[in-house]
């Protein structure tokens, strides 16, 4: 069973060299797409409004539609 309170740390080559928001966590990937760091950024999982993703702190999440 998947724990939705933890970030997905599986390899994602399409996210190589990026940091993305996953619910309550900011996850950083290395050049091969391996998750190397997950940092809790909020107690709230965030939300999406008109295609723009906001973190739990209300800031636009990196890589969302409005950037």
Radius of gyration: 12 Å
The shape is globular
Low-confidence stretches: none
How much helicity do the residues have? under 10%
* N/C terminus separation: 34 Å
Order of helices and strands: EEEEE
Report on the biggest sheet.
3 strands, antiparallel
Q: Order the strands across the largest sheet as they lie in space.
A: 1-2-3
Summed up, the helix count is: 0
Number of strands: 5
Structural class, from helix and strand content? mainly beta
> DSSP strand (E) fraction?
25-35%
Description of the molecule:
With 67 residues, the chain is mostly beta strands. The chain has a domain at 13-54. The protein contains no helices and five strands. It has strands spanning 19-22, 25-29, 35-40, 47-49, 52-54. The strands form two sheets. A three-stranded antiparallel β-sheet has the order 1-2-3, with no helix packed on it. It has a two-stranded antiparallel sheet with strand order 4-5. A hairpin with a 5-residue loop joins strand 2 (25-29) and strand 3. It starts with 18 loop residues before the first strand and ends in a 13-residue tail after the last strand. The model has no long low-confidence stretch (mean pLDDT 80).
